[in-house]
Amino acid sequence: MTEVQAPHTHDRVELRDLAALASEGDRTALNDLLTRVRAVAHRYVRSRLWTYPGGADMVDDVAQEVCVAVFGALSRYRDEGRPFEAFVYGIAARKVADAQRAFAVADVSTPDLPDGADESPTPEEHAVRHSEVQHIMDLLDKLPEKLREILRLRVVAGMSAEETGRALGMTPGAVRVAQHRALNTLRGFVGHEAQLERGAGEGHHG
C-alpha cells in the first residue's frame, strides 16, 4: 500500500529554514518566504506610519520595498541563531525611517477647494483626530524603546506574542510580561494626567 504524500507546503516551516532553501535556489521556498515576509512587513510598517498624514497610503509601497530589500539581501544572510524575523524587522525599521524622513521634509501644500459638497472630515475633525492620535503617541514615547516596540507590534500591528518575540529576539512569555508592564505604565500616565486635570479644575473653581 503506497503512502499518500502530503502536498508541498512551507506553512509550518520557520522563516530561517525557508531563507536557507530560497538562497539555494528553491523557487517555491522563495515565493513562500516573500509572501510571509510581506505579511510581517505590512503589519509592522502600518503600525509605524498610520499616524502620518497619508501614511496609510504608503504602507503597501514601503512593505514592497522591504520585500525587495530582503530578496536582495538573501545571498548575504547568514543564520547565526537569530530568528529570520529579526533580520526582516531590521530592514523594515530602516525603510520606515526613510519614509518618516520623507514625511518630515515633504512640502505640505494647501489643496484647491472642491466645487461641490465635501463629505470628507472637516479641518476641525482632522485636528481633533490628529491630536488624539498624537496624545497616544506622546504617551508611548515616554516608555522605554523596547516596551514601545512591543506595544506597537502587539497592539497596533496585531502580531502574536510568538511573532513579536521572533522579531525582537524574546520568548513569547517575556513579550507578554513586558506588554503587561507597558500597559500598566501607560495606565499610570493616564491616571496621573487625569489627576493633574482634576487638580487644575478644582484650583480654577476655588
TrEMBL record:
Residues in RNA polymerase sigma factor 70 region 4 type domain copies: 136-186
Entries under Pfam families matching the protein: Sigma70_r2 (PF04542), Sigma70_r4_2 (PF08281)
SUPFAM superfamilies with a match to the protein in the record: Sigma2 domain of RNA polymerase sigma factors, Sigma3 and sigma4 domains of RNA polymerase sigma factors
Tree of life domain: Bacteria
Domain RNA polymerase sigma-70 region, first and last residues per copy: 34-101
A molecular function GO annotation: DNA binding
Cell cycle is among the record's keywords: no
Record keywords: DNA-binding, Sigma factor, Transcription, Transcription regulation
GO BP terms: DNA-templated transcription initiation
Family, similarity comment: Belongs to the sigma-70 factor family. ECF subfamily.
Protein name: RNA polymerase sigma-70 factor (ECF subfamily)
